[in-house]
Amino acid sequence: MKVKVLGCSGGIGGKHLRTTALRVDNDVLIDAGTGVADLSLTELSMIDHIFLTHSHLDHIATIPFIVDTVGAMRDKPLTIYGIEETLDTLKKHIFNWSVWPDFTAIPTADVPFMRYERIRVGQKLVIDGRTFTALPANHTVPAVGYQIDSGKNSLVFTGDTYINDPLWKIVNRLPNLKYLVIETAFCNREKQLAIASKHLCPSLLAEELAKLERSAEIFITHLKPGEIELTMQEIEEFAGDYKPRMLQNGQVFEF
């Protein structure tokens, strides 16, 4: 299994700053932020599944363009997976004929370009030998993270999250955990903003990582542009014992 980072920034501004999207092999996306726009037409047409963590724009931005661009090039619908609240938001506020056409009815309801599949926290979906499990998250809107399991090793992606004890109870039971990708959106001087928006800052990150009882390579995602260097310095100060590294756009994990 190969997971490539298409975007891992908390904002935009330059060719290296793309919002959240991970591509699993050639056919699965975890979130669909602005990084997906760097894929070629052929690469876009190969995406069969998109697993969403939540409904915020930086995580769903390219879905309307993907389905509009390559829907007619494909021989089956693009499947969008999400918890009920996330899918309801897409239906009501994006694919509603006002903001964007409803591609679950185009070209016909019987043969659409896109379909939804509701998932629940704890649910496992197996796609070509790869297991995707929705994990609990704690954000300002209903949200999940994901465990991506190759059968040999697992990568856990927290998605956008705040203090999240239920996550660690699950992660600490994973025998094959290899990578942990966890967000830290704000520096410590913006701790109150992090709390209000249910994100982490370096001091909160350190408190969360103290709950991790398994060995893993830890990578930091969702850093805000303009604060990247400062936030990583503070992460080194507060959580350096866990050897966290900054996730990089274009980074590839093979496991």
Explain what you see:
It contains 8 helices and 14 strands. It is α/β, with parallel strands linked by helices and 255 residues long. Strands 6-5-4-3-2-1-14 form a 7-stranded mixed sheet. It has a 7-stranded mixed sheet with strand order 7-8-9-10-11-12-13, covered by helices on one side. β2 and β3 form a beta hairpin. It is globular, with a radius of gyration of 18 Å.
Layout of helices and strands:
Elements: E1 2-7, E2 21-24, E3 28-30, H1 41-45, E4 49-51, H2 57-60, H3 63-70, E5 78-82, H4 84-93, E6 114-118, E7 124-127, E8 130-136, E9 144-149, E10 154-157, H5 165-171, E11 177-183, H6 191-197, H7 202-209, E12 217-221, H8 228-239, E13 245-246, E14 252-254
Parallel strand pairs: 3-4, 4-5, 5-6, 10-11, 11-12, 12-13
Antiparallel strand pairs: 1-2, 1-14, 2-3, 7-8, 8-9, 9-10
Helix pairs in contact: 7-8
Class derived from helix and strand content: alpha/beta
Based on CA atoms alone, the radius of gyration comes out at 18 Å
Classify the beta-strand content into a percent band.
25-35%
Strands, total number? 14
Count up the helices.
8
- The CATH superfamily name of the largest domain is Ribonuclease Z/Hydroxyacylglutathione hydrolase-like
| Biggest sheet: strand arrangement | 6-5-4-3-2-1-14
Terminal-residue CA separation: 6 Å
Shape: globular
In the predicted model, the low-confidence regions spanning at least 5 consecutive residues are: none
Largest sheet: 7 strands, mixed
CATH overall fold name of the largest domain: Metallo-beta-lactamase, Chain A
